[in-house]
């Protein structure tokens, strides 16, 4: 859902007459690490069912990825409210995963909106960083228990942390596309006004 949230935020930014120049001015400390973390999760997802050792330790790798991600978000917390919300959302996901062996619990009932093969894959082995939600699950309410409504173009089950994180992504991108543009326009007008006053 993260990619959906990014695309939606950019679309709204353009509808609000924003632009992408703010991304060019953005300075994220150690920002190159974020795509590496995403790529690492994707590689593990592809290979953990093929290699038993990787499947056995993948939960610990996921926890490590989250710890690095949380650290980077904390380091960049001064970039605004959006980053704080992303941090809180990721932290909530980390808490429930950490309490359940490094995997995100998924409600099989909520997952009924998905392809039946997904629920079967969950019960038979590893599926990404997910595991079925059971009576023994800790903090189950923080897991993937919220099915997206039917009008949403893709069938997905998300967590409270995902929602907060996507709100943060939306606000952060609006800040880059619209708020910074408005600030630049105000400074431009002030400079022009000062030049006219001097002349």
From TrEMBL:
Keywords: Membrane, Transmembrane, Transmembrane helix
Transmembrane parts of this sequence: 59-75, 81-99, 157-177
Source organism, top-level taxon: Bacteria
Stored InterPro entries: DUF5317
This protein's name: DUF5317 domain-containing protein
Source species of the chain: Pseudalkalibacillus berkeleyi
